[in-house]
Design a protein that fits this description.
Structural class of chain A: alpha/beta
Order of helices and strands of chain B: HHEHHHEHEEEEHEHHH
CATH topology of the largest domain in chain A: Rossmann fold
Helix content of chain B: 40-55%
Largest interface: A-B, 45 and 50 residues
Oligomer: heterodimer
Order of helices and strands of chain A: EHEHEHEHHEHEHEHEEEHEEHEHEHH
Structural class of chain B: alpha/beta
Strand content of chain A: 15-25%
Number of domains of chain B: 1
CATH topology of chain B: Rossmann fold
Number of strands of chain B: 7
CATH superfamily of chain B: Thiamin diphosphate (ThDP)-binding fold, Pyr/PP domains
Largest sheet of chain B: 5 strands, parallel
Radius of gyration of chain B: 19 Å
CATH superfamily of the largest domain in chain A: Thiamin diphosphate (ThDP)-binding fold, Pyr/PP domains
Largest sheet of chain A: 5 strands, mixed
Number of strands of chain A: 14
CATH architecture of chain B: 3-Layer(aba) Sandwich
Radius of gyration of chain A: 19 Å
Number of helices of chain A: 13
CATH class of chain B: Alpha Beta
C-alpha cells in the first residue's frame, strides 16, 4: 500500500474523484496554474483543463456563492478557500445560503458543495494564517464540518464529503500537510461523516479531539504508557455532526475525559462535548471534565515564543492527561 | 407585430400577467389590512419590467433569481396565484418554502426559480454560479439575477458581475431601479446617475431601458439572452421604474417622498400605458378587457379561498429538510 502524506492523500483523492465524476469542478485562488499555495491541487489543471480547475477572481463570497449556484444547476463544486482565515467574507453565503437552502425551500433545493480550507497554526502564520474556525460553522444546522486527522481519513472523508448532498466544510491542518504520513489504499472508499474513530484504546483517561491534535494526543498517550497511564484517543473526525454515542461510550469507559482543541476555549467544540457528557454520562465520571484548548486571545501571534505559548503541544496534552489520571 | 417576435397573442398575455400581478398584489394588501396576512411586499409599479423580462426568457428552463419585489415576475414565469397565496399565508403546500419563508421569498424548483434569502445581492452570485454550470454543461440556459438599485451597493453585486464577465458567463443582471431602497433615495446609494454605467467597470454592456414599457424591456432582455447564449458573456440591464406603494405593508412612504411625486409617477403607470397601446393597436378591446378583468377577479378569488382553506404546516415537520441524510 502506498504511503502518502496528508497533502498527497487529499490531492490524489481529488484526482480520483474528478476522474470518476465529470461534474466535479475545483476553483479558488491560485488553484490552477500554481496548484494552490500549498500545492494541494498541483497538476490537476493540467489533467482536467481550465474549465474544471479554475483560477477564480480573488473574492471569497463569490467563490462560495457561485459554487452554490453551480451545484444547483448540476455540478459538484469543490471550491477552495486559500486559508480558513479568509473564509469570513463568505460567511453569509455559507451560513445563510448554503446551510439554509434545503431548509428554506422545504427540500426543493439542496447544495452539494465541499469547501476545502487549510486551517491551524504553529506554522508562523500569525493572526490571519493560523486560525481554527470550525466552531463558527459547527454551530450551524445544515452544515457538516469535517476535520481529518490522518492521510487515510483524509481520503475517505473527502470522498464522502464530495458524495454528500449537503454543504460540507473540509478543514485541512497546514502543519499536517507534510508532517503526517500514512498508508492509503489506491481504491476508492468512503468514511461516513459523523462517525468518530477510536485511534487508540485505553483504560484511564479519554482524550477526545480532532485534526492535528489527534497525532499530538497519540504522542502524549505513548509517553504516558511508560508511566503506566493508559489513554484512549477518540478522533471525532467531524465536529458537526458529533458522534454522541462514541463520545459517551468512551467517557463511560474511562470515567475521565480530557477534551483537546487548538481553537480557543470559550464557545469551542469542547464545551459542546462536555455538555453532552454532563447531560448523559455524569454519574460515570470519576473526575471533572478537563478542556485543553487555545487561549481566549483573538488569534495566534507571529513571534515564536508567543506562537508557542498559544499552541497546544504533545507535552501540554501529556501533562494534563497525567494530572487527570492522578485525580 | 414587428420582428421582435412579439405576436398580438403574446402582447395580450403580457398584459394579462401585468394585470393579474396588480390584482394579486391589491388582494394581498387587503388581506394584510384585514389582519389575515402578516406582511406584504409589493411589485406594484414594476409589472412591465418584470413581465417584459420574463417573456424574453425560455420560461421554466432559464434560471431566474428573483428578489422580494418580483411578484409579477414569478407569476409571468409560471407560478400560479394559488401558489402565491399559499406562500403569503404560510401554508404547508407553499411550493416556495412550505410555509417557512416570509412572503415574497420566491423559489420554485420545477419552474427554475431559485430560492432566495433576505440579504440583498446574494442572488447575484448565485446567478453567476448557475451560469458557470451552464457554460460547462452546455445546457443552453441563461440565468438572470433580479435586484433593486440599493443592493448594488453590496460587495456581492460587484463580485458577481466581475466573476461573470471574466468567465464570459451566460447571465443577465437585471436591475429594477425604482429610485428608493425602502426610504433611501438612489443619490445616497451611488454617486453615479445610472446603475448601468457601472457595467463599463466590469467589461460588459450596460443597458438602460424604460422599465414601464414591457415591449422595450422584452427586447433588451431578449438581446442580452441571445448574446449570453452565443457565449459572449453577461449584460447589465437597468430598468427605470417606480414603486407606487410603500416598500412593504409595514412601511409608510409618506415619511420619505411627497404625494405629488407619487402622483406624478403614476401618470406613467405601466398598466395604463400598455392598455392604451394595446387598444390603439387594436389588440385589446372593451370586450376583451372586460372578460379578462372578470377572469382575473375569479382567479384571485379562487386563489385566496383556496389558500385560506389549505392546511398549515404540521409542527412535527419543524425538523424536516435540515439535511438530506445524516
Amino acid at each position: 500500500m502506498a504511503v502518502l502524506s496528508y497533502l498527497e492523500a487529499i490531492r490524489e483523492t481529488l484526482r480520483q474523484e474528478m476522474r470518476r465524476d465529470s461534474r466535479i469542478i475545483i476553483y479558488g485562488e491560485d488553484v490552477g496554474v500554481r496548484g494552490g499555495v500549498f500545492r494541494v491541487t498541483e497538476g490537476l489543471q493540467k489533467e482536467f483543463g481550465e474549465e474544471r480547475v479554475i483560477d477564480s477572481p480573488l473574492a471569497e463570497a463569490a467563490i462560495v456563492g457561485t459554487a452554490i449556484g453551480a451545484a444547483i444547476n448540476g455540478l459538484r463544486p469543490v471550491p477552495e478557500i486559500q486559508f480558513a482565515d479568509f473564509i469570513f467574507p463568505a460567511m453569509n453565503q455559507i451560513i445563510q445560503e448554503a446551510a439554509r437552502i434545503r431548509y428554506r425551500s422545504n427540500g426543493a433545493f439542496h447544495v452539494p458543495i465541499v469547501i476545502r480550507a487549510p486551517f491551524g497554526g504553529g506554522v508562523h502564520g500569525a493572526l490571519y494564517h493560523s486560525q481554527s474556525v470550525e466552531a463558527f460553522f459547527a454551530h450551524v444546522p445544515g452544515l457538516k464540518v469535517v476535520i481529518p486527522a490522518t492521510p487515510y481519513d483524509a481520503k475517505g472523508l473527502l470522498a464522502a464529503a464530495i458524495e454528500d448532498e449537503d454543504p460540507v466544510l473540509y478543514f485541512e491542518h497546514k502543519a499536517a500537510y507534510r508532517s503526517l504520513k500514512g498508508e492509503v489504499p489506491e481504491e476508492r472508499y468512503l468514511i461516513p461523516i459523523g462517525k468518530a474513530d477510536v485511534k487508540k484504546t485505553g483504560r484511564d483517561v479519554s482524550i477526545i479531539t480532532y485534526g492535528l491534535m489527534v497525532s499530538y494526543a497519540l504522542k502524549a498517550a505513548e509517553e504516558l504508557e511508560k508511566e503506566n497511564i493508559s489513554c484512549e484517543v477518540l478522533d471525532l473526525r467531524s465536529v458537526r455532526p458529533l458522534d454522541v454515542e462514541a463520545i459517551l461510550t468512551s467517557a463511560k469507559k474511562t470515567g475521565k475525559v480530557l477534551i483537546v482543541h487548538e481553537d480557543n476555549l470559550t464557545g469551542g467544540i469542547g464545551g459542546e462535548v462536555s455538555a453532552l457528557i454532563a447531560e448523559h454520562a455524569l454519574f460515570y465520571l470519576d473526575a471533572p471534565i478537563v478542556r485543553l484548548a487555545g487561549p481566549d486571545v483573538p488569534a495566534m501571534p507571529y513571534s515564536p515564543p508567543l506562537e508557542h505559548a498559544f499552541m497546544v503541544s504533545p507535552e501540554k496534552i501529556r501533562d494534563k492527561a497525567r494530572e487527570l489520571a492522578q485525580f | 407585430m414587428a420582428d421582435n417576435g412579439l405576436t398580438p397573442e403574446l402582447m395580450l398575455d403580457m398584459y394579462y400577467h401585468m394585470a393579474l400581478a396588480r390584482a394579486v398584489d391589491d388582494r394581498m394588501w387587503i388581506l394584510n389590512r384585514q389582519g389575515r396576512a402578516p406582511v406584504v411586499y409589493t411589485s406594484n409599479g414594476h409589472e412591465a419590467a418584470q413581465v417584459g423580462s420574463a417573456f424574453a426568457l425560455n420560461r421554466g428552463e432559464d434560471w431566474i433569481c428573483p428578489y422580494y419585489r418580483d411578484l409579477a415576475l414569478v407569476l409571468a414565469y409560471g407560478m400560479t396565484p394559488r401558489e402565491v397565496m399559499l406562500h403569503l399565508l404560510g401554508r404547508a403546500d407553499d411550493p416556495n418554502s412550505g410555509g417557512r419563508q416570509m412572503p415574497a421569498h420566491w423559489g420554485h424548483a420545477k419552474l427554475h426559480i431559485l430560492t432566495g434569502g433576505s440579504v440583498v445581492a446574494t442572488q447575484d452570485v448565485h446567478a453567476t454560479g448557475l451560469a458557470l454550470a451552464s457554460k460547462l454543461l452546455k445546457d443552453g440556459r441563461v440565468s438572470v439575477a433580479y435586484f433593486g438599485e440599493g443592493s448594488t451597493s453590496q460587495g456581492e453585486f460587484h463580485e458577481a458581475l466581475n466573476f461573470a464577465a471574466v468567465h464570459k458567463l451566460p447571465v443577465i443582471f437585471f436591475n429594477e431601479n425604482n429610485g428608493y431602497a425602502i426610504s433611501v433615495p438612489s443619490r445616497k446609494q451611488m454617486a453615479v446617475q445610472d446603475v448601468a454605467a457601472r457595467a463599463q467597470g466590469y467589461g460588459m454592456p450596460g443597458v438602460i431601458v424604460d422599465g414601464n414599457d414591457p415591449v422595450k424591456v422584452y427586447e433588451v432582455v431578449k438581446e442580452a439572452a441571445d448574446r449570453a447564449r452565443r457565449g459572449e458573456g453577461p449584460t447589465l440591464i437597468e430598468a427605470k421604474t417606480y414603486r407606487f406603494v410603500p416598500h412593504s405593508s409595514d412601511d409608510d412612504d409618506r415619511a420619505y417622498r411627497t404625494r405629488e411625486e407619487v402622483q406624478e409617477a403614476k401618470k406613467r403607470d405601466p398598466l395604463i400605458l400598455f392598455e392604451a397601446r394595446l387598444r390603439e393597436a387594436g389588440i385589446l378591446t372593451d370586450e376583451k378587457l372586460k372578460a379578462m378583468q372578470q377572469q382575473i377577479k375569479d382567479v384571485v378569488n379562487d386563489a385566496t379561498e383556496y389558500a385560506e382553506k389549505a392546511p398549515l404546516p404540521d409542527p412535527a415537520t419543524l425538523g424536516d429538510h435540515v439535511y438530506g441524510s445524516l
